[in-house]
Design brief:
This protein is mostly helical and 269 residues long. The longest helix has 32 residues. The protein starts with a helix and ends in a 6-residue tail after the last helix. It has 13 helices and no strands.
Length: 269
């Protein structure tokens, strides 16, 4: 009876959390007049909302732009963040703890405070309306560095010492020894970075004016608030559904490793 009650509560919780998203997806398949209803099943399936989205804005181009920017930033954060995290966790040098404190301090500064100086820098470098303005500012992540540092500290020092005895350099130790053992944290940092980059709207709105370089969240935001949707709720929901789909697919595919990373406290076995 206790287990049945637990399952009932979990199922009710899942329904509460999933229903708004399921309603949004169902609303995109309904005729416009049926969208205000709370039911999920439409009287007839209609793809008119999706057809209007693709007809009114270059969504495929925006999708490609978002994928290029998100994957570039994610790869950079994984590569450089793991290098810095390894240095801060395993190398002994003067000022190491001060550097960790500096990274923590930068994480406490709101983006709104650095936004204007960063935009002026982009203008001075003539990077506005280019991919560089979207990618370069996000190539390092203090949060990712700290996650890597915390995870790498759990790796046995004897394993690293044995690799050094075999003649491996620190770079080789990181990418040939540590990385294969760090799949959960790599996927966790990758998912968090990808989601944050994919959902970013404010910075692209500031530095990008050329429609051919706009990211998908930026394009959908402009589409929803500029009147291009012509006050049609179904079209707005269709654009929002297409925007959320890549992140949902990525999380669904890697969720096992994501949970494993959050639950693990060190090497097992």
């Amino acid at each position: 009876m206790k287990r049945a009650l637990t399952w009932l509560i979990l199922i009710l919780g899942a329904v509460v959390f999933l229903y708004p998203f399921l309603w949004m997806v169902a609303a995109t398949l309904k005729p416009e007049m049926e969208i205000p209803s709370f039911g999920l099943l439409p009287s007839r399936v209609s793809l008119a909302s999706y057809e209007q989205v693709f007809a009114k804005i270059p969504l495929l181009r925006a999708l490609i732009n978002s994928l290029v920017v998100s994957f570039s930033i994610t790869a950079s954060v994984l590569f450089f963040g793991s290098m810095v995290g390894y240095a801060l966790s395993r190398l002994r040098f003067r000022g190491r703890e001060l550097m960790v404190m500096a990274i923590l301090f930068t994480m406490m500064i709101p983006f709104q405070l650095t936004m204007i100086p960063l935009y002026i820098l982009m203008v001075k470098l003539h990077w506005t309306d280019t991919y560089l303005a979207l990618i370069v500012p996000g190539m390092m992540s203090g949060f990712g560095i700290l996650l890597f540092r915390q995870f790498f500290q759990s790796v046995p020092q004897s394993l690293i010492d044995a690799a050094r005895v075999d003649g491996l350099s620190d770079m080789q130790i990181l990418f040939r020894i540590i990385w294969p053992l760090s799949r959960p944290i790599l996927i966790t940092v990758g998912i968090i970075t990808f989601m944050n980059t994919w959902n970013d709207v404010l910075w692209p709105l500031i530095v990008i004016r050329d429609q051919s370089i706009m990211t998908m969240p930026q394009m959908v935001t402009i589409f929803a608030v500029s009147g291009m949707a012509e006050a049609q709720l179904g079209v707005k929901l269709a654009a929002a559904t297409l925007l959320a789909l890549p992140v949902i697919i990525a999380y669904a595919f890697f969720q096992r490793y994501f949970i494993e990373s959050l639950a693990s406290t060190g090497l097992k076995g």
